[in-house]
Design goal:
This protein is of the alpha/beta class. It is 38% helix and 14% strand. The structure holds 2-phosphoglycolic acid.
Amino acid sequence: MKKLIVANWKMNPLSVSEAVKLTKKEDIKGAVIAPPFVFLESVEKVLKQAELGAQDIFWEEKGAYTGEISAAMLKNLKVKYVIIGHSERRCLGETDEIINKKLTATIKAGLTPILCVGEPLNIRKKGLLSAKTFIKNQLLKNLKGINLKSLNSKFSILNSRFIVAYEPVWAISTGTTGIPAKPEDAVEMHKFIKDLLATRYSLLAKVLYGGSVNSKNAESFLKNPEIDGALVGGASLKPEEFKKIVKIAEKYNDE
Ligand code: PGA
């Protein structure tokens, strides 16, 4: 299984030239670069090894939707992956129903979703069982009514085109604690997510961990077979850090 390291640049950097500079440094095999929409085209032109991701999508195909970006627009820019339902968007009012529509549009267009789920601190404080219940509810609501058959025709994780990012909200570097989850807790949750998706939907999903991943702690997550990669925020803006994380992931790729 090949591990995937996704750079979520969030609302950074400020200019096309900075985005291009950063891309040149982070253009390595096994990486996905997800810049802001406005830099997608320039980043794509530079990429030789890494793949391209978007940070969001709109569910309608075209029409009068001021400020929105469709799946077709992303595909035309050679985007392959779409981050959906990041907790920073959920915080701004993105509901499970909206995420469900975005996921539907993404899958229909043949793009690969990276669906973000994660429990807030008050839920985690109640224990692992509460956190699992919270994550299960998010997944069931986000996947409601979606035809997943097209995604797993070969029923092989190698071909898995459905990606979940488990990002405990409190563990994100700008979140409530900014302290990464314990690797063993992340493993436990990854197992839970994989089992749920396999039994309910016959879906073999890749599950990435996200939340304060850096070059120092990356190995403790990525060495576990249940952790198929990482969604990296803050550290993805530091090319040396990011490259180290991708190199660590490479060590644990099994063909
Ligand atoms: P972080 O962000 O690596 O800065 O914690 C991860 C994310 O929000 O995707």
